[in-house]
Amino acid sequence: MAKILKMGPSPHIRTKETVEDVMYDVIIALLPALLAAFYFFGIRAIVVTAVSILACMGTEYVCQKLMKQDIQIFDGSAILTGILYAFVIPPYMSLVYVIIGAIVSIALGKMVFGGLGQNIFNPALVGRAFIQASWPVAITTFMYDDIGGATLLDAMKRGLTTDMALIDKGNLYLNTFVGRMGGCLGETSALALLIGGGYLIYKKHVDWKVPAIIIATVFASALIAGADPVLHIFSGGLFLGAFFMATDMVTSPHTQKGRIVFALGIGILVSLIRFKGGYPEGVAYSILIMNGFVPLINRYTSPKKFGEVK
Questions:
Q1: Which helix (H) or strand (E) holds 149?
Q2: Domain containing 38: what range?
Q3: For residues 106 and 77, is the Cβ–Cβ distance under 8 A?
Q4: What's the CA gap between 294 and 282, in Å, rounded?
Q5: Given pLDDT bands bounded at 50, 70 and 90, which one contains residue 1?
Q6: What is the CATH number of the domain that holds 214?
Q7: Is residue 215 part of a domain?
Q8: Beta bridge partners of 142
Q9: Is residue 134 assigned to a domain?
Q10: What integer is the mean pLDDT of 75-92?
């Protein structure tokens, strides 16, 4: 009865779709990237992802117990946060840091705001930002085929040749698209992420304009900066962030105009950080910064209320 009488804020739209349906659809969409990670990084990819999921679910259980909330760790949200957090860290990072980041993702990125649907920032990126601020070496140490070195973005940032980056020999563009290179666990294969993103668009969980605007903005910025635009959109966390984090229903704007502004802001910030900032990558911070602007974007892009007079 308690579930029947629960009511959220207006507008009230009847639908058969549930929170669980959406969460598990996104999880399904991430499976191609997880399989790609397993193929390129081996069993370590599965271990890191499993540890992250369990830490997220355990943290949410404890928080809900302490906050005297209904235990809902199987609604898919904690599992999704665990997968996304695992995807934005190096596959060979110490499991201690994996667990700490997962705890922070749920405790500080989600539950401190009240739980699902009330968080301001993307929880997985909160965990990543915490680890990057606390243990920067751990989260920027990459390996591929048991060899350590620079990622492709890092190599381009420092003016190194692509031969000095962690990437397979052969067709450079094909390797970056497929994911035969070093990087964070779930972001290397643009192909796998594109398949998952297409599934979300097909299921109408994602507004296709958001990832399209983000990717197109970075592409255009790379052209203006004299960099290789294809390598820049296929490298780093751009596809993961554009399809799976910038489209988060809780932390992105509610209106179509707002989502366009939001996506454009992310694309510009990513480009500024990559080409003018000190970091070779800027997807995580760009999304977190624009998350903070969402209330303001919603306020100024909301349509006029029915019957409202200026």
A1: strand 147-149
A2: 19-300
A3: no
A4: 18
A5: very low
A6: 1.10.3430
A7: yes
A8: 149
A9: yes
A10: 96
- Token pair belonging to 57: 């679910």
DSSP structural state of residue 33: H
Reported as type and span, the H/E element at residue 144 is strand 142-144
For residues 44 and 125, give the distance between their C-alpha atoms in angstroms, rounded to a whole number. 21
Q: How high does pLDDT run on average in the chain?
A: 92
Q: How many domains does the chain have?
A: 1
| Within-domain flag for 7 | no
* Residue 236 φ/ψ region, left for φ over 0, alpha for ψ in the -120 to 50 degree band, beta for the rest: left
* The dihedral formed by the CA atoms of 248, 235, 232 and 152, expressed in degrees to the nearest 10: 150
pLDDT in tens, 180-211: 999 999 999 999 999 999 999 999 999 999 99
For the record, the structure tokens of 294 come out as 């969402």
Asked, for residue 13, whether it belongs to a domain, the answer is: no
Phi/psi at 181 (nearest 5 deg)? -160, 165
pLDDT in tens, 217-261: 999 999 999 999 999 999 999 999 999 999 999 999 999 999 999
Predicted local confidence at residue 307, as pLDDT: 62
Q: Report pTM.
A: 0.91
